[in-house]
Amino acid sequence: MCLAIPARIISIDGIKGVIDLEGVRREISLILCPEAQVGEYALVHAGFAISVIDEEQARLGLETFEEFRRILEEGAA
Q1: d(C-alpha 54, C-alpha 50), whole Å
Q2: Which runs of consecutive H residues, i.e. helices, occur in 1-77?
Q3: Radius of gyration (Cα) for the chain, nearest Å?
Q4: Which residues have C-beta within 8 Å of that of residue 8, sequence separation ≥ 6?
Q5: Whole-prediction pTM value?
Q6: Calpha distance 58→60 (Å, rounded)
Q7: What CATH number belongs to 5-76?
Q8: Which of 20, 22, 44, 64 is the most exposed place for a label (fewest CB within 10 A)?
């Protein structure tokens, strides 16, 4: 199974970018999305931005991940 997480791009330096996901910052490769801009959202998988998405898509994706996390935590209790 492949899982890509929406994250906001906060800086770009060449083909490298930094994303912020709930306060966690990670360096990623933008080689697959050279059109990406600071402030946009990207789907990130295995350290690569694989697609640029709009803010609404990102919000829906993040809400889905939060719901999934909540279900897992309830099941572990």
Answers
A1: 13
A2: 55-76
A3: 13
A4: 19, 20, 21, 39, 40, 41, 58
A5: 0.86
A6: 5
A7: 2.30.30.140
A8: 22
